[in-house]
Write a structure and sequence with these properties.
Residues 1-25 form the signal peptide. The protein has 484 residues and is mostly beta strands. The protein is 8% helix and 41% strand. Strand 11 and strand 12 form a beta hairpin. The protein is globular and about 70 Å long.
Length: 484
């Protein structure tokens, strides 16, 4: 959306000019305005009566060019209502939109839980927004409507008008799909799933379990691409996704995938992965095991064929994230967060050769001076500076889980520092955080402890300046999960 502001002096000048044009005759210059060639171009015209410096004209009809057009965009706040327990977000998702000018105004107060639009979803909705903030995309999560894709035009407040055709992707990826919007100009979304089955050799004696031998775990991946504009399925492929023979013999397998991301060339799709493990001797789940190098599945795009797996030697742990986008394209490379790293979360780098750059070692423990940093959600601006939500070993245990914090991150300098201007509370819970609005170098976030009021905050990633914005009115046991 765009707001145009007209200076009162300019308005007066326009009225006066119209009046002079009406009063004057082309045949009679008496009482009219004499125009002289004051700028030396040999032509006497209206511009010659304007002052040399724009913006100082008052009574001669000159345009005032110093008043810039102020660009504003919608900021949609997402709120997750409590189900059975504080902070579980299982009571449904509500959204409410204000313009960015109001979002920056601490005297503005909004009540999404009382006045918001209820997003169709049995549990916390998986929301995405267009780059300009004018469209919200949703795929319902679980329940009778699970897997239904809808999109809405943002019109302010609780008004979100459904547009286009609703379509179900449940037949392909189930009723609780993990999906994301690709960064291709709001054209395409991608949803994924993985199913697993342990392969057991019973040695011909199925009645004697002691003779059973674990072979490997088959991980079958499904990947779907969705036309967000015309609401139709573009492609769907299923693949077996094996690890190395040694890893599989030791009981490792890919147990969850999420967060598809396009590379800079637009010819590869990266999908984050989580590893699990069984004890090969018993085929029972193993929770105490060596964490392997972080892995990503690479597919040809748009065909979704030829899957392969790449492995980092810098980071260890998972790359699938949770509910927020976990990998972003910047300056020709994809930067990806990992979670569950025994040395603290890293931001990893995948270069144009579609391999991890193991010379890039950005460790959050070292950068923040904490232990067991865990990246919950993050989002960079176009300048390579990002706002990152995290917890660490020193986080207080709140009513819903570990306390969260925000940090300002520089991808190139590999630095990070906590944003201290935002208030923190033991009940400030960010595990389910989903959305950040990026507007130029500014990033909008929400801050409110579970069940307590809070505010929108705007971080200028270039200067580090933090602005306290509109008040967010909360309700018991509920929390805010971001801006879109």
């Amino acid at each position: 959306m765009k707001r145009n502001f007209l200076n009162i002096k300019s308005l007066f000048a326009i009225i006066l000019m119209v009046g002079m044009m009406t009063a004057c005759s082309s045949d009679d210059n008496s009482g009219g305005t004499t125009i002289e060639d004051t700028d030396g171009d040999g032509i006497a015209n209206e511009d010659d009566n304007c002052p040399t410096e724009a913006g100082t004209a008052e009574n001669n009809g000159c345009p005032d060019e110093t008043e810039p057009e102020e660009e504003s965009r919608w900021i949609t706040v997402a709120a997750a209502r409590m189900g059975d327990n504080p902070g579980d977000g299982n009571g449904g998702t509500l959204i409410y939109a204000i313009d960015s000018e109001d979002a920056k105004d601490p005297t503005v107060s909004i009540e999404p839980f009382d006045n918001g639009f209820i997003v169709p979803s049995n549990r916390t909705a998986r929301l995405q927004s267009s780059e300009d903030g004018n469209t919200i995309f949703n795929i319902s999560y679980a329940g009778d409507t699970g897997g239904n894709y809808t999109k809405y035009t943002v019109e302010g407040g609780q008004t979100f008008t459904q547009t286009g055709t609703e379509i179900s992707i449940a037949p392909y990826v189930g009723s609780a799909p993990r999906w994301i919007k690709l960064f291709d100009g709001d054209k395409t979304g991608s949803a994924v799933y993985v199913s697993t089955e342990h392969e057991i050799d019973d040695n011909g004696t199925p009645e004697d379990a002691t003779d059973d031998t674990y072979i490997r775990t088959e991980a079958t991946m499904g990947v779907l691409t969705l036309d967000l504009v015309d609401s139709q399925i573009l492609n769907f492929q299923e693949h077996s996704v094996p690890l190395t023979a040694e890893e599989e013999a030791n009981g490792y397998y890919i147990s969850r995938i999420d967060m598809p991301t396009l590379n800079a060339a637009g010819d590869k799709l990266y999908i984050g992965a989580r590893l699990s493990k069984v004890d090969p001797a018993t085929a029972e789940s193993d929770s105490d095991y060596e964490i392997l190098g972080s892995k990503t599945i690479v597919l040809d795009y748009p065909s979704l064929l030829n899957p392969s797996v790449i492995t980092s030697t810098v980071g260890h742990g998972n790359t699938n994230g949770y509910r927020s986008i976990n990998a972003f394209l910047y300056n020709g490379s994809v930067y990806q967060a990992n979670q569950g790293d025994p040395e603290g979360s890293h931001i990893l780098k995948i270069d144009a050769d579609n391999e991890y750059d193991d010379t890039y070692a950005f460790n959050l423990d070292e950068a923040l001076g904490v232990e067991d940093a865990y990246i919950l959600a993050w989002r960079p601006a176009s300048n390579g500076k990002a706002v990152l939500a995290y917890r660490h070993a020193g986080s207080a245990e709140g009513v819903a889980g570990a306390q969260g914090f925000f940090a300002l991150v520089d991808l190139e300098a590999q630095t990070a520092q906590q944003i201290t201007e935002i208030p923190y509370d033991p009940d400030f819970y960010l595990f389910q955080y989903q959305g950040f609005v990026v507007d130029g170098t500014e990033i909008y976030v929400t801050e409110a402890p579970v069940g307590q009021n809070g505010n929108i905050y705007i971080i200028d990633t270039e200067t580090g300046e933090v602005t306290k914005g509109a008040e967010l009115v909360n309700v018991e046991g509920s929390h805010f999960i971001g801006t879109f």
